[in-house]
Amino acid sequence: MSIDPAAPSPTGDTENLVTGNLVAGDPADKAVAELEQLGETLTRVLDGVERIIFGQREVIEQTLVTLLSGGHVLLIGVPGLAKTKLVETLSIVLGLETNRIQCTPDLMPADILGSEVLEEQDSGRRAFRFIRGPVFCQLLMADEINRASPRTQSALLQAMQEHRVSIAGQYHALPEPFHVLATQNPLEQEGTYPLPEAQLDRFLLQVDVRYPELASERQMLLATTGASEERPAPVIAPEALRRAQRLIRQIPVGESVLEAILGLTRRGRPESTDLDAVRDHVAWAPGPRASQALMLACRARAVLHGRLAPSVDDVVALAAPVLRHRMALNFAARADGVTVEHVIGQMCDPLR
Q1: Contact assessment for residue 282 and residue 329, using Cβ atoms and an 8 Å cutoff
Q2: Three-class DSSP category at 76
Q3: What angle do CA 264, 349, 74 make, to 5 degrees?
Q4: Which regions in the chain score pLDDT beneath 50?
Q5: Are 307 and 10 in contact (CB under 8 A)?
Q6: Cα separation of 29 and 125, whole Å?
Q7: What is d(CA 49, CA 240) in angstroms, rounded to the nearest whole number?
Q8: pLDDT per residue as tens digits for the range 62-73
Q9: What confidence score (pLDDT) does residue 295 get?
């Protein structure tokens, strides 16, 4: 993957770049050279993950987009589709310290955040000591997050939003970078606690993990059931990921892309749209945080695909993973068999 600094704007015209600090078309710009180097590094990251995870290119890309944007991702899929394997592989390839939490109804906030214990020293003096929980890592996997109680989910929500936790009135900062990759099984809903809208909105993307194609599943069988299995190798360090996240925020965004993002999110609100599918079927519409997520994700996807600035195609490609968990349909939609994906598709039609 290489980025051509002299290439024209991917928006197809000479529009002004309304956000970001880079100057498109200036090969002497240090940031442009850093972007090109980042693109090559991300190619190695993708290759390293795809050697372990077969047939899930789109899932890998969208997860990397989330991490490059500094956000959290919700992975939805049936058991056995390598969701846990993906998190483990990413932690090694990106050099991130990782922990895993198996969410259950009896899981308490202290089991995630940590707690204070009373210790007696050799001098006889007693003092409280804070013992850190598994949330103190750089990549946290919350497996089957909807099985955790609302109290535990709210504790995790604070960590996701503020990158710190509060124990006994004292704040404890989490490591940087800090990302939550949560999984959810869409089949069994007994004994679960659906995530509230506030927590769903904290996830930058919802990535649906589907079954691999025939060729990929054949390759996976041959690679994982033999005498030896390939292991992932580190590609970058956590500080390099932090630099990449800062650099991506400097990428310029064209006026047409900005208008596409604003038009898409506002088209999903019943009070400000001309789409019958939205007015008749949407009960909960995407808010401003959806626009922010889409802006960041489009920048990261552009770099993954070797481009200097995002295009409207990035907006269309990321519309579903950004919006599907930020919208809810009413009873009439469910009765008519209308899905969120169908509504988002109609919202994207003017951009195609």
Answers
A1: yes
A2: strand
A3: 55
A4: 1-2, 4-16, 23-28
A5: yes
A6: 60
A7: 17
A8: 999 999 999 999
A9: 96
Q: Are 175 and 138 in contact (CB under 8 A)?
A: yes
What pLDDT does residue 17 have? 52
Assign 234 to helix, strand or coil. Answer: coil
User: 16 near 255, Cβ under 8 Å?
Assistant: yes
Tell whether pTM > 0.85.
yes
Q: What does the alpha-carbon distance between residue 292 and residue 129 come to, in Å, rounded to a whole number?
A: 39
CA atoms within a 13 Å half-sphere pointing along the CA-CB vector of 92: 13
Environment class of 57 (CB within 10 Å of its CB; exposed 0-12, middle 13-18, buried 19+) = middle
pLDDT reported for residue 261: 97
**For residue 39, which of 304, 298, 344, 236 has the smallest C-alpha distance?**
304
pLDDT, one tens digit per residue, over 19-78 is 555 544 444 467 788 888 898 999 999 999 999 999 999 999 999 999 999 999 999 998
Cα within 13 Å of Cα(211), Cβ side: 5
Which residues have CB under 8 Å from 286's CB, separation 6+?
265, 268, 269, 323, 326, 327
Q: Beta partners for 167?
A: 170
Q: What are the strands, taking DSSP E only, across 170-213?
A: 170-173, 179-184, 205-208
Cα separation of 302 and 298, whole Å?
Answer: 6
What residues contact 308, with CB distance under 8 A and at least 6 apart?
A: 3, 4, 5, 7, 10, 22, 24, 32, 35, 251, 302
Contacts of 242 (CB under 8 A, 6+ apart): 176, 177
**CA pair distance 167, 113, nearest whole angstrom:** 8
Cα–Cα distances in angstroms (integers) from residue 128 to residues 77, 108, 135, 212, 237, in the given order: 42, 20, 20, 51, 34
Are the CB atoms for 35 and 247 separated by under 8 Å? yes
Angle among Cα 271, 273, 202 to the nearest 5 degrees reads: 75
pLDDT score at 177: 93
Q: What is the DSSP letter of 175?
A: P
